[in-house]
């Protein structure tokens, strides 16, 4: 690491210098505490007696080498602030590669270099994701399945790997996105308030076991994305908060010190903070082979406190641009995804062109409009008809990803299935139509665990998914429907290859307000698909439409097929229309709350 570049905020390898590292002479410990009067190492091999560390740089770098320290041993830094009224505080290592399980908080020496990955083939072919299907299954690792043999109910990274990989492959997902896996003190924060940014949470095991989980996914053809939190950190006094007795990592200004979640906001105007965060991002991508980062709460970086009326935060904008540009240079095939609810322009535009440099931006507008539409009374939907067409007016502005994430399944919002209008039986056909619309719409996809079988209970980190409801035929049928839709998405280029190209999508009919019918064409190369959506509660006996340059239509999926608990017998026979001067004319009947995907056959 270049120390000068570290203080300028240009380092992406600070984790190779700071922290605890094995050398031929033992373990060398380094930490940054510029405003400390004294820093000592305490560790279990030394009976937790303080050993003074040497200040080796004017910027406040401290170092010590311990010849007999070993991987697996615990340690902390005892920091005495310069403030005469300040109390000595024992801190975990900001760059530590392992930590104790809460409520304990010591760092643990880890040798990260001793694991050998076997995913060379995956790493070579993971490029060009923008023209490939990206179907993400979002997972909270501790509550996907619980372990009856563990007092906390947790499987280790190693134990859950084969079970999780087999499940996502069977059900047609090709990426897993994990909610944050860095160490955190409160289970209820889901990892979004971290104390150990470089430490995989010990809830599920060690760093090597996490590497094995990623490796297992890759060897099975599954990509892995990690939630990354560059905005804020936990307030716990043993971690980053007032690390050297001053606000080293956080804002000194009272109004910006704390976030809306009660956590401390990182100050991105400090070079050492920027180097810490962008090194952390590079750490997960390089050392653990994660395929991408979903960056949380980006709007809080774009605007002061996330409030547009306060204006853009120039230091945070510069940080995002520098980080994304640097990651792109070092990890050119990795995905950089912004969870951003703002209208800021250029989030997915290259930094060289003035943008923020992300690959994808969550389309929160699409999510809100779509769910509000499906909540609405069917007889009122004609007034909200264009909630489902509006997204295509702004879609070309960014490279969007369509999320139905954990945020839409918690905090009194109801699960996705619960959000559908009507009683229990009415919700399922509408949810099937919702997901067909989602997968017909341009943009990469993300759904939260449990959605695939119609979870009815809001998610909580304290309880595993309600797998038992698959014993109910309607939920089992819904699961089979989602499987069929997912596998079509993975195998039909028209649904993904031209997501961000103007000729990849066309409304064939978006002016059926009274009957709530939509006709969509997706295409890529010679692959053409027609998707019909009928979102009224009344049957339409005769819907007549034309498809340019079409010889016939072949049904691929119907949301109302009986095997999906619908009312229509499965029929994949080719449908031939009536030839006219303007092309073939087709007339079909559409059940209430239904959708059909058809292949467009050439003339």
Question: Can you walk through the features of this model?
Answer:
The chain is of the alpha/beta class and 603 residues long. Helices cover 23% and strands 25% of the residues. A hairpin with a 7-residue loop joins β3 and β4.
Write a brief caption for the model.
By secondary structure, the chain is of the alpha/beta class. The protein is 23% helix and 25% strand. The strands form seven sheets. It has an eight-stranded parallel barrel with strand order 10-11-14-17-18-19-20-21, surrounded by four helices. Strands 3, 4, 7, 8 and 9 form a five-stranded antiparallel sheet that branches. The protein has a five-stranded antiparallel sheet with strand order 22-23-24-29-26.
